[in-house]
């Protein structure tokens, strides 16, 4: 079986994919849309993409692509504790405070703002497709005064020196990854929870639309672990709601809730009903 992931190797997504699929062929892709398209067109059987981070919130590229452009199901979720490391080429290890450019994925840069402000308030921040890409670029250009923010595995893979350990702003930083491509996916990991994720669009100009929608879940004692709005990309001011449901009630009760939403004129897209797995951080 082939499993695609947001590459290159030694990225956080790669670490999540490798832990979840230790015996499968892992194929890196340069972007989230490229990974999702590979699943859609059958180039790989499954894909692993980031969906949310504790500090920065949802990965909008993943959410929007899965909502607007495909019907690929979500079959599992992986939760990975995230530890960001500040790394430079080994020849620059003693002079790391002279760094002029810091490269990383936008999420990693945002997750490390306190460290950056404290040590490099004037450094140029450069976004890269992934943390591992940033590490590989730093390794390929040791003559430059540059650094990468990436996982420890990237330092090992690209032979870099870690000069700032665990620099993320929040100690309990975690990222959720979705495994897409099949409705039911079995992973060799402990199951922490079970959830269902839906996207809900309510009729325009319906008074109290969100209140009415949430009441459908409330009186049935269906617990929501997340709700957020995203633009529909049609008309300014129109949104869909991304909702995570904790699956504790009988399946029939969940189905009745979704049917009631449809009877109110709402449109419901089910991303998937899946198990949540927590793995060790790397």
From TrEMBL:
The keyword Zinc does not apply. Its EC number is 4.2.1.51. PROSITE patterns: ACT, PREPHENATE_DEHYDR_1, PREPHENATE_DEHYDR_2, PREPHENATE_DEHYDR_3. Residues 2-182 form the Prephenate dehydratase domain. InterPro entries: ACT-like_dom_sf, ACT_dom, Chor_mutase/pphenate_deHydtase, Preph_deHydtase, Preph_deHydtase_CS. Pathway: Amino-acid biosynthesis; L-phenylalanine biosynthesis; phenylpyruvate from prephenate: step 1/1. This is Prephenate dehydratase. Residues 198-275 form the ACT domain. One of its GO terms (biological process) is L-phenylalanine biosynthetic process. Transmembrane segments: none annotated. One of its GO terms (cellular component) is cytoplasm. The record marks 175 as: Essential for prephenate dehydratase activity. The keyword Amino-acid biosynthesis applies. It catalyses: prephenate + H(+) = 3-phenylpyruvate + CO2 + H2O. It comes from Enterococcus termitis. One of its GO terms (molecular function) is prephenate dehydratase activity. Keywords: Amino-acid biosynthesis, Aromatic amino acid biosynthesis, Lyase, Phenylalanine biosynthesis.
């Amino acid at each position: 079986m082939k499993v695609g992931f947001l590459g290159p190797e030694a990225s956080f997504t790669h670490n999540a994919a490798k832990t979840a699929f230790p015996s499968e062929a892992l194929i890196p892709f340069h972007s989230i849309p490229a990974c999702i398209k590979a699943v859609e067109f059958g180039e790989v059987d499954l894909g692993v993409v980031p969906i949310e981070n504790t500090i920065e919130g949802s990965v909008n590229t993943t959410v929007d692509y899965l909502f607007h452009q495909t019907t690929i199901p979500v079959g599992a979720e992986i939760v990975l504790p995230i530890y960001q490391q500040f790394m430079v080429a080994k020849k620059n290890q003693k002079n790391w405070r002279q760094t002029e450019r810091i490269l990383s994925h936008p999420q990693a840069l945002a997750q490390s703002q306190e460290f950056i402000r404290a040590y490099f308030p004037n450094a140029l921040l450069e976004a890269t497709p992934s943390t591992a890409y940033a590490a590989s670029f730093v390794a390929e250009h040791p003559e430059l005064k540059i650094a990468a923010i990436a996982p420890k595995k990237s330092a090992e893979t690209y032979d870099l020196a870690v000069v700032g350990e665990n620099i993320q702003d929040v100690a309990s930083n975690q990222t959720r990854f979705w495994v897409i491509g099949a409705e039911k996916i079995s992973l060799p990991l402990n199951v922490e929870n079970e959830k269902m994720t839906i996207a809900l669009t309510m009729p325009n100009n319906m008074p109290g639309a969100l209140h009415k929608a949430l009441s459908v879940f409330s009186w049935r004692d269906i617990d929501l672990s997340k709700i957020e709005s995203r633009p529909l990309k049609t008309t300014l001011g129109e949104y869909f709601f991304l909702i995570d449901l904790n699956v504790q009630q009988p399946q029939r009760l969940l189905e009745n809730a979704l049917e009631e939403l449809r009877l109110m004129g709402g449109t419901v897209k089910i991303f998937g009903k899946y198990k949540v797995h927590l793995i060790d951080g790397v």
